């Protein structure tokens, strides 16, 4: 049952009975249980209303710099891009949001290794261009409705359409022509438009193909392989021409789920952006990506390159993990997550009687330290925080949640959702056990170092699964001068069962004097025995399954 003090702090009068107070708590807990955890499953209005800024994140997002937004799965890249899209509209600019998981008619082509890399990359490029072109068409119609020059706009759209649709065929070609009444031919474009002037208004219909009337149907048969070719210069010129006739509006290209594209194709798509869109000042590009699952650049021996050069062509200085990991900034993390819960409560359930986020925490948790334990258990992943809040609400339904409730929920969440996915792969499970035994079992610590210049697929997969979490990048150690390391910690759910037992961890790291510390005083350089020997992992072979 709720204590009257809890209810009073939450804004409920002392005259309410304990039963009424308990029912009020259940209303809030039911809302927690129903929280939507994935941004793509809710409307943009809800995403906008539930967005929580952690300064100076919004200020960085709203800059006109071309930018990559890094973050592992669940850290809010999609949420941030949708929020940015709504903010851009408020400024009078035009956002184009592209989810790379859903472009094209058959995304499986990109992973079809029976096709050449050239064919797969150009097919990807054309699909992205057509997705952008479709959105540009809608923007152009907006200008037509406001009295824009229909002839010029239509002409520029035709140029853009033609630039997107050029196809070269290598090999012998046979054609057969037969008269067909009321037939049509397709130019292979992604946009079909009809403009009709009726007074000052113009209308448009967007569909999948451009059609024109014809009295003959042409059937072509290609001998050999059909090879696609993209003319970057013509595409850039057609985009620039369209922007000019529209009055040079500012257009934000927001590309989400970059890392879902095969990594070998990513530099070619990046090269398209560099050669066609980046040179035009009125375009701004933001890309949501997972850092170690992204490849924006291929170097050439002559000094040239394919793709985007990070730091020169596009900035890569924003990582959402830097803002949300509890161990990096505890006060900022606590503030973010309590506002995250309150915003989601506001979006899902009215009439709860709570005025702000602080009152919510006082009402739902036995004490502030219980909520801080939830923040710690979330490990910097907002999606995990929402999942944990849902599980905690179900476990403590009808009463305030304690530290013990958070720990049990975190353990269950780890075992049922995180670790179970890893255990499906035998080799990855062995590696996880090896790391746990070395770091927790032998060292009684929770964190470890790996060389920053070495990519290890096991470490990357465990990071993707949110079993281990990145704390710091590119730090040095006294024991190995000149070598830089990345600092990882093991997930809270992995060691929570050991708390208050003889096997409990003693801190993140062991310092030089043998004591255990949470945050080393001299930027991690005093850590000893914390380096994980990746050679120990070489005996394992990662097998998909």
At a glance:
By secondary structure, the chain is an alpha/beta fold. 41% of the residues lie in helices and 17% in strands. The strands form 7 sheets. The chain has a 5-stranded parallel beta sheet with strand order 2-9-10-1-13, sandwiched between helices. Strands 14-16-15 form a 3-stranded antiparallel beta sheet. Strands 3-8 form a two-stranded antiparallel sheet.
Mean pLDDT: 77
Shape: globular
The biggest sheet, with number of strands, parallel, antiparallel or mixed sense and barrel status, is: 5 strands, parallel
Structural class: alpha/beta
**Beta-strand residue percentage:** 15-25%
Distance between the terminal alpha carbons, to the nearest Å? 47 Å
Quaternary class: single chain
Low-confidence stretches are 1-16, 169-216, 519-523
Strand order of the largest sheet: 2-9-10-1-13
Helix content: 40-55%
In total, the number of strands is: 18
Helical stretch tally: 18
Question: What Rg is obtained from the alpha carbons, in whole angstroms?
Answer: 28 Å
Description of the structure:
This protein is an alpha/beta fold and 545 residues long. Helices cover 41% and strands 17% of the residues. It has 18 helices and 18 strands. It has helices at residues 4-9, 18-33, 44-50, 57-61, 77-90, 117-145, 150-165, 232-245, 266-277, 321-324, 330-348, 357-364, 368-378, 382-395, 403-423, 426-442, 457-464, 492-495, and strands at 67-70, 94-99, 168-169, 173-186, 196-198, 201-203, 211-222, 226-227, 251-256, 283-289, 297-299, 305-307, 315-319, 447-451, 468-476, 484-490, 509-510, 516-517. The strands form seven sheets. A five-stranded parallel sheet has the order 2-9-10-1-13, sandwiched between helices. Strand 17 and strand 18 form a beta hairpin. Helix 2 runs antiparallel to helix 14 (382-395), helix 6 (117-145) runs antiparallel to helix 7 (150-165) and helix 11 crosses helix 12. The longest helix is centred in the first third of the chain and has 29 residues, at 117-145. The two termini are 47 Å apart. The model is unreliable at 1-16, 169-216 and 519-523 (pLDDT under 50).
């Amino acid at each position: 049952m709720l204590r009257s003090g809890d209810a009073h702090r939450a804004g409920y009068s002392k005259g309410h009975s304990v039963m009424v107070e308990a029912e009020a708590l259940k209303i809030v807990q039911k809302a927690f249980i129903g929280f939507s955890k994935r941004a793509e499953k809710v409307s943009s209005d809800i995403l906008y209303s539930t967005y929580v800024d952690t300064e100076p994140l919004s200020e960085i997002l709203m800059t006109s710099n071309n930018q990559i937004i890094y973050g592992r799965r669940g850290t809010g890249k999609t949420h941030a891009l949708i929020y940015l899209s709504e903010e851009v509209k408020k400024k009078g600019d035009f956002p184009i949001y592209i989810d790379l998981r859903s472009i094209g008619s058959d995304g499986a082509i990109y992973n079809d290794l029976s096709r050449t890399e050239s064919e797969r990359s150009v097919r990807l490029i054309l699909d992205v261009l057509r997705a952008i072109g479709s959105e540009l068409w809608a923007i152009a119609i907006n200008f037509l409705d406001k009295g824009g020059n229909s002839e010029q706009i239509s002409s520029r759209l035709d140029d853009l359409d033609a630039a997107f649709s050029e196809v070269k065929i290598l090999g012998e070609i046979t054609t057969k022509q037969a008269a067909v009444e009321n037939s049509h031919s397709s130019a292979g474009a992604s946009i079909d438009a009809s403009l009709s002037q009726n007074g000052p208004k113009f209308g448009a219909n967007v569909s999948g193909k451009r059609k024109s009337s014809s009295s003959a149907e042409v059937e072509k048969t290609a001998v050999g392989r059909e090879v696609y070719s993209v003319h970057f210069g013509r595409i850039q010129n057609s985009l620039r021409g369209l922007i000019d006739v529209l009055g040079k509006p500012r257009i934000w290209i927001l590309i989400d789920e970059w890392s879902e594209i095969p990594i070998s194709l990513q530099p070619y798509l990046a090269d398209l952006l560099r050669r066609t869109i980046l040179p035009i000042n009125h375009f701004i590009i933001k890309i949501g990506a997972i850092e170690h699952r992204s490849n924006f650049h291929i170097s050439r021996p002559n000094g040239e390159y394919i793709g985007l050069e990070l730091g020169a062509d596009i900035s890569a200085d924003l990582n959402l993990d830097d803002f949300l990991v509890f161990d990096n900034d505890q006060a900022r993390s606590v503030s973010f997550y309590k506002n995250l819960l309150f915003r989601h409560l506001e979006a899902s359930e009215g009439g709860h009687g709570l005025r702000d986020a602080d009152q919510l925490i006082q009402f739902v948790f036995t004490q502030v330290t219980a909520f801080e334990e939830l923040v710690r258990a979330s490990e910097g992943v907002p999606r995990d925080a929402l999942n944990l809040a849902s599980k905690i609400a179900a476990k403590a339904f009808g009463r305030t949640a304690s530290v013990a409730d958070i720990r049990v929920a975190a353990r269950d969440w780890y075992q049922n959702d995180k670790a179970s996915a890893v255990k499906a792969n035998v080799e990855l499970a062995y590696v996880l056990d090896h790391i746990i035994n070395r770091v927790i079992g032998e060292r009684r610590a929770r964190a470890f170092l790996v060389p920053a210049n070495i990519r290890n697929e096991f470490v990357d997969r465990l990071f993707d699964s949110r079993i281990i979490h990145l704390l710091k990048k590119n730090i040095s150690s006294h024991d190995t001068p000149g070598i830089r390391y990345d600092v990882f910690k093991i997930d809270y759910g992995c060691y929570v069962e050991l708390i208050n037992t003889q096997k409990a961890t003693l801190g993140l790291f062991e310092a030089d004097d043998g004591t255990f510390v949470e945050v080393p005083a001299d930027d991690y350089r005093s850590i000893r025995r914390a380096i994980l020997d990746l050679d120990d992992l070489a005996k394992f072979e990662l097998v998909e399954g």
